[in-house]
Design goal:
Shape: elongated
Organism: Fontibacillus solani
Largest sheet: 5 strands, antiparallel
Number of helices: 16
CATH topology of the largest domain: Rhopdopsin 7-helix transmembrane proteins
Protein name: Diguanylate cyclase (GGDEF)-like protein
Structural class: alpha+beta
Oligomer: single chain
Number of domains: 3
Strand content: 5-15%
InterPro entries: Diguanylate_Cyclase (IPR050469), GGDEF_dom (IPR000160), HisKA_7TM (IPR031621), Nucleotide_cyclase (IPR029787), Rev_trsase/Diguanyl_cyclase (IPR043128)
Domain GGDEF: 416-559
Helix content: 55-70%
Number of strands: 12
GO molecular function: diguanylate cyclase activity
Strand order of the largest sheet: 4-3-7-6-5
C-alpha cells in the first residue's frame, strides 16, 4: 500500500493522541463528556476511510462506508450538543423537546445503513474504494448541513448577545473558527471527489484533514481560553457575583481573598491580619457580642453567627448585617476560615413591617370573627323564624308540610308507619271573648309547652292555624299513637294556665283527630302534595267528629 492509503490512518492516530491528551489533562465535567464523545465520533471518519482501503471484500468495504457516514450523522448531533453546552443553552436539553434533535440524524443513519436500491452509494469497478453517490446521499448531506446551520446560528447569536461575557464570546469565536475550517474541508471534499467528473483523480483525506485542523482549534481553546475548565472559570465569577460579602482567611488569620460584595464600611484588604473585634461596631451590647467572640476565639472548629447593626456616616438608616463564620478543614486540620457578610437590612425592615401589618391584620381578623359570629347568629335566628311560629315557638305549617312531603316521597323506598294528630283547643273563642286576646295567646303558649313535655325527640309539633295544631309521630304504630295521644290529652287537661289579671288558673281541654298511616303506594308517592291533602282531609274529618261528639276526646280517622 502506498502513502496515500495511510493518510487517513495517520490522521486517525493524531486525533486519537489529542483525545488521550484532553482526557488526561483536564477535570472531567459534563461539558468534557460531551466534547470527548464529539471528539471520538470525529476519530471514526478517518479510521473508516483507511479501513476501506485495507480489504478487497466488497461487504467489508460497504460496512466501513456506512460506518463513516453513520459517524458523520453522530458528528452532526455532537456539533449541536457541544454548541449548546458551550454557549450556555444546555437548559434546553432538560426539556422533553430535545429528543426531537436526534430524529433527523437517526433518519439519515437509517438511510445509510439500509442503502435502499443503492440510492445512497454504489460501487465503481467492483469496489467501494472509488464509489458513486446517489440521490439519497444529497438528502443525508442536507440533513447534516441543517445541524451545522443551527450550530452556526446559535454561535452567531451568542456573539451578538449583550448579556454574554467577553470570556464566553472569546471561547465561542475560537470554536467557530474550527467549525468553519472543517466545513470548508468537507465542502472541498464533496466538490473534488463527489461532484467532479469521474476522470478527475481522487484527493484523499480532505474531510479527515479538516477534522484534524478543527480539533487543533478546539485543543488551543481548551488550554489557552480554558473552555472546558468550568471549576476554574466559575470560581471567580461566583466569588464576584454572589450577593454575600466573602472573606477568606488562612490559618494565621491573614486575609487571602475578598469579593466585590464585601460591604465597603468593613474596611479590609488582602494581606492584612484580620481581627474579629474590628468588625464588631461600637455600641453593640456586650451580652450580644461576647458569646460570638468567645466562640470565634476559643472554638475555631465550630461555626458561629451573629447579627450586627452598622451606623454609617451620611446614611439615614443603619445597616443590618448577618455574619457567619465557618472553618476550612483539610484532613481534620483547620487551614483557614470563610466569613460571610449578608446585608439583611431589607429583610429586617420587611420583618418589622410584617410584624406591624400582622398586628393590624389580627385586629381586623378579630373584628371579622365578631362580625361573622353575629352574622351566624342572625342567620340562625332568620332560619328559625322561617320554620317556627312566632307566638308559640313550635314549628309552623310550611315546615311540617315540607317534612311530610319528604316522608311521603321516601315511604316507597323505606316504608315505615307514621301517625298524624290534628288537635283543636275546645271553646278557645270563649277564652278570647272572656279574658281577651292576650290571655288567649298565653293559653296557646302554655298548651304548646304542655304538649311538648309529652312528645318524643323526633316528634314534630306545628301550629296548623289559629288554635289548631298538628303533631307528626314518625315510626309509630296504631297502639303507640293512641297511647301517646291519650298522654297528650291528659297533659293538656291537667295543665293549669296562669293568666295575668285573672284570679284563678285556666284549664282547657282539646279534641283530637288521629290518622295512622301504614302504607303509601308508589303511585301516590309520586305526588306527595296530593297525598297530604288527602291525609289532612281525613284527619280533619276525625277532628270534626270529635267535636260533634262532645269534645275532649280522640277519634281515629278512617285512613
Amino acid at each position: 500500500m502506498g502513502l496515500i492509503v495511510w493518510i487517513d490512518l495517520i490522521l486517525f492516530f493524531l486525533l486519537f493522541a489529542l483525545f488521550v491528551y484532553i482526557f488526561a489533562s483536564v477535570t472531567i465535567t459534563k461539558l468534557h463528556k460531551v466534547y470527548l464523545g464529539f471528539h471520538f465520533s470525529m476519530m471514526l471518519w478517518p479510521f473508516s476511510q483507511f479501513a476501506i482501503k485495507t480489504t478487497d471484500n466488497l461487504e467489508y468495504q460497504l460496512f466501513y462506508v456506512k460506518l463513516a457516514f453513520v459517524d458523520l450523522a453522530l458528528l452532526s448531533i455532537g456539533w449541536l450538543l457541544f454548541t449548546l453546552f458551550l454557549t450556555g443553552q444546555s437548559q434546553f436539553l432538560r426539556t422533553t423537546k430535545y429528543a426531537a434533535l436526534f430524529i433527523p440524524a437517526l433518519i439519515a443513519a437509517l438511510i445509510v445503513v439500509y442503502n435502499p436500491k443503492s440510492m445512497f452509494v454504489e460501487p465503481i469497478n467492483g469496489g467501494y474504494i472509488v464509489r458513486d453517490y446517489g440521490p439519497l446521499f444529497w438528502l443525508i448531506v442536507s440533513i447534516l448541513a441543517a445541524y451545522v446551520v443551527i450550530s452556526l446560528f446559535v454561535m452567531t447569536m451568542t456573539l451578538a448577545s449583550k448579556i454574554k461575557t467577553p470570556r464566553i464570546k472569546r471561547q465561542v469565536r475560537q470554536v467557530l473558527r474550527g467549525m468553519i475550517v472543517m466545513i470548508l474541508f468537507i465542502a472541498a471534499d464533496i466538490i473534488c471527489n463527489v461532484t467532479s467528473p469521474k476522470s478527475f483523480p481522487v484527493i484523499p483525506g480532505l474531510t479527515s484533514l479538516g477534522i484534524l485542523v478543527s480539533v487543533i482549534f478546539f485543543v488551543i481553546a481548551i488550554h489557552r481560553d480554558k473552555v472546558l475548565d468550568i471549576v476554574t472559570i466559575a470560581h471567580q465569577d461566583i466569588i464576584d457575583t454572589i450577593t454575600l460579602g466573602i472573606l477568606v482567611l488562612d490559618e494565621n488569620e491573614i486575609v487571602v481573598e475578598i469579593n466585590q460584595s464585601l460591604p465597603p464600611y468593613i474596611n479590609l484588604h488582602i494581606g492584612e491580619r484580620f481581627n474579629i473585634e474590628v468588625v464588631v461596631p461600637q455600641g453593640e451590647s456586650i451580652t450580644k457580642t461576647r458569646p460570638f467572640l468567645d466562640s470565634y476565639q476559643e472554638s475555631p472548629l465550630n461555626p458561629a453567627e451573629i447579627e450586627l447593626t452598622y451606623r454609617v456616616y451620611n446614611a439615614i438608616d443603619p445597616f443590618h448585617v448577618k455574619i457567619q463564620v465557618a472553618p476550612i478543614v483539610v484532613s481534620h486540620t483547620m487551614v483557614g476560615r470563610i466569613i460571610t457578610f449578608q446585608d439583611i437590612t431589607e429583610i429586617r425592615h420587611l420583618i418589622d413591617e410584617t410584624h406591624s401589618q400582622n398586628e393590624v391584620l389580627q385586629r381586623r381578623n378579630q373584628s371579622l370573627i365578631t362580625i361573622q359570629q353575629e352574622l351566624f347568629e342572625t342567620n340562625q335566628k332568620l332560619q328559625r323564624m322561617t320554620i317556627t311560629d312566632s307566638l308559640t315557638g313550635c314549628y309552623n305549617r310550611s315546615y311540617l308540610t315540607h317534612q311530610l312531603e319528604l316522608k311521603v316521597m321516601k315511604h316507597n323506598r323505606a316504608p315505615e308507619p307514621f301517625t298524624i294528630l290534628l288537635l283543636d283547643i275546645d271553646f278557645f273563642k270563649s277564652i278570647n271573648d272572656t279574658y281577651g286576646h292576650l290571655a288567649g295567646d298565653d293559653v296557646l303558649r302554655s298548651t304548646v309547652e304542655a304538649i311538648q313535655r309529652t312528645l318524643r325527640k323526633n316528634d314534630i309539633l306545628a301550629r296548623y292555624g289559629g288554635e289548631e295544631f298538628v303533631i307528626y309521630l314518625p315510626n309509630t304504630d296504631q297502639d303507640g299513637a293512641n297511647s301517646l295521644a291519650e298522654r297528650i290529652k291528659a297533659s293538656v287537661e291537667s295543665n293549669k294556665i296562669i293568666v295575668q289579671q285573672v284570679e284563678s288558673p285556666i284549664s282547657i281541654t282539646i279534641s283530637m283527630g288521629l290518622l295512622f298511616i301504614n302504607h303509601i303506594t308508589s303511585e301516590d308517592s309520586q305526588n306527595p302534595q296530593a297525598v297530604l291533602n288527602t291525609l289532612f282531609d281525613a284527619v280533619d274529618k276525625a277532628l270534626y267528629q270529635a267535636k260533634n261528639e262532645g269534645r275532649n276526646r280522640i277519634v281515629n280517622a278512617q285512613g
